[in-house]
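User: tokens in, sequence out, please.
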């Protein structure tokens, strides 16, 4: 059985190259010279006290004045012993009872730097689109798409990512932090503790999660709502990984192929400068009707199969022989090599129109990392380390894990993960008639394709106002917000969610 947390996500580390998995392999282990006691027999130097700095950013000609805080919160076990420390970056503005939004990326093993410096924070570093390179200066600039104008922002780095760390050995860390249920419980408690510490329990509260952070989103919302007594007013899920089981059993079920065909077709339309919601509507309709029906018929209807293969060839622009030999079922990594093979390049799983040279073009399988994942680690890490240690003045010399492959490798995949987060999404919406959810995807994303969320939401009962849970798509891929136009549209749609009564 494939491991779902290593076959999707942004930072879902699709580890197609074993060489990349060595990154940060021992980053959080203490050196022999580190002798400060953590209080439980595990020795690490103490983290600095919370640090603050005043900054400004300009959005639409308006200057926003805000305070940045980098600090940490403890994680305690049932006996009260501190077992870990979660580092956060908070942006707050003066104003009475402003909304507050908590942000998490995915992986498992991704820090929150991508949402912070790529999507919604007040500063931005360029990454994730065609033409960006790792060696470009990691220079922060004002983010025109920041959400800070209408909400305070708290970015949370889960244990093992960023500067957050376990204070227990690896075996205990897997139990306490690196598994489905424990991950949700301690992150929910961190949100609770930040609200309590900062006197924000009466603020309007929102949660944004990207990729596996989108898997976390409904579960954290449900746990906070029903176990810790904290209710979210709204949830934004960016490129979420809501239903791992939907991508399996492709030998019988049409569902895995239904999820990816529209995204591949969207990428083809974009290359032809024809991508739009209107152009995608008949493709989505074909996918959920004729395409699915034909796949279910299998060899019992050769004429229908031949017509389907011709249609898939038309929608994707791929070589007819490749589509025929694939049976109209387009496996993601095979497609990403095939579509750019003539150019000697690879497409990215996270946005198939972002490419890189294939250093092993004659190998039977892709032997290098993903073009986007390989390019984003350097700019985001450099920008974050400089910002935290120099700009904010939170002086710490530990390694910053933007993407921790060690956490991803250590993650314990119990059967609970295969249940996804759809049940918790339904329950949270049912429990609170005022809760609103926006699920946002890039058309070109093959790691967490938009079609999955379309099908999930269409199967949900309306529960009053059906617009309380919406799915919206934008040009781009997993990190569609890296494109200025898509980021602007997303910010507009999110602002409407926050302004809703």
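Assistant: Sequence out:
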């Amino acid at each position: 059985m494939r491991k779902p947390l290593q076959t999707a996500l942004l930072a879902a580390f699709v580890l197609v190259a074993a060489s990349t998995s060595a990154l940060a392999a021992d980053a959080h282990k203490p050196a022999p010279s580190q002798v400060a006691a953590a209080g439980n027999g595990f020795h690490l130097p103490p983290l600095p006290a919370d640090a603050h700095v005043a900054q400004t950013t300009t959005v639409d000609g308006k200057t926003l004045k805000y305070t940045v805080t980098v600090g940490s919160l403890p994680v305690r076990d049932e006996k009260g012993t501190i077992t870990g420390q979660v580092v956060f970056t908070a942006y707050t503005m003066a104003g009475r009872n402003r909304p507050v939004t908590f942000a998490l990326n995915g992986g498992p093993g991704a820090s929150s730097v991508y949402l912070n410096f790529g999507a919604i924070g007040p500063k931005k570093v360029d990454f994730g689109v065609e033409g960006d390179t790792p060696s470009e200066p990691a220079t922060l600039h004002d983010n025109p798409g920041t959400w800070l104008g209408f909400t305070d922002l708290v970015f949370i780095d889960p244990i093992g990512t960023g500067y957050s760390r376990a204070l227990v050995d690896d075996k205990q860390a897997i139990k306490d932090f690196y598994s489905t249920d424990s991950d949700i419980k301690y992150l929910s408690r961190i949100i609770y503790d930040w609200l309590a510490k900062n006197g924000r329990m009466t603020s309007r509260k929102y949660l944004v999660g990207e990729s596996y952070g989108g898997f976390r989103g409904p579960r954290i919302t449900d746990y906070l709502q029903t176990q810790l007594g904290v209710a979210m007013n709204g949830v934004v899920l960016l490129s979420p990984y809501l239903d791992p089981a939907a991508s399996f059993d492709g030998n019988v079920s049409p569902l895995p192929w239904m999820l990816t065909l529209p995204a591949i077709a969207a990428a083809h339309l974009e290359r032809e400068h024809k991508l739009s919601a209107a152009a995608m509507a008949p493709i989505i309709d074909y996918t959920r009707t004729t395409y699915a029906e034909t796949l279910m018929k299998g060899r019992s209807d050769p004429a229908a199969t031949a017509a389907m293969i011709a249609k898939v060839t038309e929608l994707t622009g791929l070589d007819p022989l490749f589509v025929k030999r694939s049976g109209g079922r387009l496996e993601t990594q095979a497609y990403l090599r095939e579509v750019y093979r003539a150019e000697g390049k690879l497409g990215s799983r996270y946005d198939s129109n972002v490419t890189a040279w294939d250093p092993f073009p004659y190998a039977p399988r892709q032997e290098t990392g993903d073009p986007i994942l390989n390019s984003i680690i350097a700019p985001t890490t450099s920008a974050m380390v400089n910002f935290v240690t120099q700009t904010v003045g939170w002086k710490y010399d530990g390694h910053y894990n933007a993407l921790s492959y060690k956490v991803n490798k250590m993650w314990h995949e119990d059967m609970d993960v295969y249940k996804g987060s759809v049940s918790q999404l339904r329950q949270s919406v049912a429990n609170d008639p005022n809760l609103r959810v926006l699920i946002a995807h890039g058309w070109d994303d093959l790691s967490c394709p938009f079609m999955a969320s379309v099908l999930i939401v269409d199967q949900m009962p309306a529960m009053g106002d059906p617009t309380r849970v919406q799915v919206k798509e934008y040009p781009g891929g997993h990190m569609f917000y890296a494109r200025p136009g898509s980021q602007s549209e997303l910010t507009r749609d999110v602002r409407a969610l926050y302004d809703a009564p």
